[in-house]
Amino acid sequence: MSSNFVIWKYQPVDGGCALKDLKGLERTFRLNDGTPLSQEFPPDVAFHMDPDYPDDLLVTDNVLNADMVIVASARLRDCVQAHAPAAVEYLPVTLVDHKGRAASKDHCIIHPIDPVDAIDKQRSVFETGLIDPDAIEEFQKLVLDESRIPADRALFRLQGFWGLTLVRRDLADALQREGFSGLRWLAVADYPEA
Q: Is residue 194's pLDDT more than 80?
């Protein structure tokens, strides 16, 4: 059976920049665990280009980053917003190049809040964390229980596993038609990738 959801992924682009060192936000784990941040998000949060890739300067629509968050161009943000997915915040960030200059002031973090409890733990194969046995460290096989996903949740993270953002297929198809750079989709059945 085909899933109604796919996984949001970065598609490598020649010369596409990679981001590291998110500055201006304390407790950055909140970007992954679904904590609402829009009311208290500082105005000067910035992602810096990764110094390990000094020649990669191209700013894509979906930008690779070490924090496993969606860093999106204004055009990509606008397209997602037009579909009005529930429980999603849009947090403005500046992208800073290797010389300390703003490479983009128009990007944002697309931040799904309120993770959805939709992992079919009977059919999935995974390892839990040593410190928190309710947290999943990694999957060998991911199976969703789509009956537990509210109809208005077109873009969300999974409760207990912060490493993925899931997107309903109709939204993914709409975004795919726009040809955004740096964006691809992975079928749930193909996760994790070999």
A: no
